Amino acid sequence: MSAPSFYTRVARLYDALARRGPGVDTLRRTLADTLDPAPGATVVEFGCGTAANRPYLERRVGPAGTYVGVDFSPGVLRVARERGVARGDPGHLVRGDATRPPVRSERVDACCGAFVAGMLADPAAAVRDWADLVGPGGRLGLLDLAATSKAGWRALNPAYRLFVRAGSPPGTAGALAQSPATVQDERVAAAHRALREVCVDVEYRTVVGGFGRVSAGTVE
Alpha-carbon distance 84 to 79, whole Å? Predict the structure, then answer.
């Protein structure tokens, strides 16, 4: 089963976890606060899923701003659109690949990716592409999960590894040389390292016991 088909199949379960899972409000607030887009800005989120970050980012950009969500799975975008219609604003939701941004650079002030770096074969290259999209002075942010190194929380790392495996499309584990969680951790580290390389004034936070990793900065 392809990744887009898998996430289409589990879209409503994914939406429930994305909105009501443990610590998700803290994770999403931290991304919006750290990205800190200006009022009136256009923000593009790659791997938007069911657009659970949309209200957090829209509060930042205000009524004059624009949120654009991009995802490769039609199922999660369908849920996002339904939620938007229910609130009277279907929003701007685009099916597309995070590694080939389907948006025009001159219209983007900030972009971010939430829980997407671990799914990309070359997350550092994607981060550099996103930096090119917003250009110098634009804002760039990442929110990801990775194993924690915090004392008192490390005992939960096995549960984290099981969570990553359970959330991976069928066949993922067998196609990787290492466990899905190990690959995700390496990709997350590469993405956040790339952000530090292309941005200035980088702010890095760990939240939710150190499992949540948030980075944001201004592109040079």
Answer: 9
Interval 40-64: pLDDT, tens:
999 999 999 999 999 999 999 999 9
101-118: per-residue pLDDT in tens?
Answer: 888 777 899 999 999 999
**169 contacts 2 by C-beta, under 8 angstroms:** yes
> Alpha carbon 35 to chain centroid distance?
12
Rounded to whole angstroms, the Cα distance separating 96 from 200 reads 28
Q: What 3-state DSSP class applies to 218? A: strand
The model carries a pTM of 0.94
Every domain of the chain and the residues it spans: 3-219
What SS3 class is residue 136? Answer: coil
**Which residue carries 């980088």 as its tokens?**
202
What is the signed CA dihedral for 78, 79, 84, 86, rounded to 10 degrees? Answer: 110
Q: Tell me the CATH architecture of domain 3-219.
A: 3-Layer(aba) Sandwich (3.40)
| Rg (alpha carbons) of the chain, rounded to whole number | 16
**30: alpha, beta or left, given left = phi > 0 and alpha = psi -120 to 50?**
alpha
End-to-end CA distance of the chain: 40
